[in-house]
Design a protein that fits this description.
Layout (H helix, E strand, L loop, with lengths): L3 E5 L8 H13 L2 E4 L7 E6 L5 E7 L5 H9 L3 E6 L3 E7 L11 H35 L1 H35 L4
Antiparallel strand pairs: 1-3, 2-3, 4-6, 5-6
Length: 179
């Protein structure tokens, strides 16, 4: 049995922090633990170990401070890593009651709204890149050649995948103010 496994393009499949958290917890219950680095939204590795019951938290922070990190540690949370520069991943082992890092609804709403803002920024970036590539290909395919055409098609596929995966989460947030 392999001691590591990889997942690709997670940013297109996990659209909300709670989805990442539940997925990490399921992986840990099966003995797989994330090896998180800055590129983990695109390629995430997991290492095999003994199954453990962990509560995971994915928390967006524009900038981490010593106080932020120390506060989590003071409450018994273990730092796992950072996804894409600003998404801090924490975990805490437990047996009975599942621990919460956010104790009030307003904190959860704020986290989810911040996450959705970042999703919108990402989708806008994908859209602009795809439009530029498409205009370039259709406006002068001779200038870009086969590589340009392939990159344009890839850009459009990524835009479609990002849109399909994130629109349901955006609708959920818009329709339900409590998420």
């Amino acid at each position: 049995m392999s001691k590591q496994k990889k997942y690709y393009w997670l940013v297109l499949r996990k659209t909300m922090p709670a989805e990442f958290e539940a997925w990490f917890e399921k992986q840990a219950a099966n003995g797989w633990f994330p090896l998180i680095n800055i590129h983990s939204f695109f390629v995430m590795s997991f290492a095999k170990s003994e199954a453990t019951k962990f509560r995971y938290i994915v928390d967006y922070q524009k900038k981490s401070t010593d106080d932020y990190i120390q506060t989590y540690r003071d409450f018994g949370w273990e730092f796992v890593g950072v996804l894409s520069r600003n998404y801090f991943v924490w975990r805490k082992e437990y047996e009975k009651e599942r621990p919460e890092a956010f104790t009030d609804c307003e904190s959860i709403k704020h986290r989810n709204r911040t996450f959705i803002k970042q999703v919108i920024i990402s989708l806008t970036g994908f859209t602009l890149m795809s439009l530029v590539a498409t205009i370039g290909v259709f406006g002068g395919i001779a200038n870009f050649g086969t590589i340009g055409a392939a990159l344009s098609v890839l850009g459009l596929c990524l835009l479609y995948a990002a849109t399909v995966s994130h629109v349901p989460a955006l609708k959920k947030i818009i329709q339900n103010k409590d998420v």
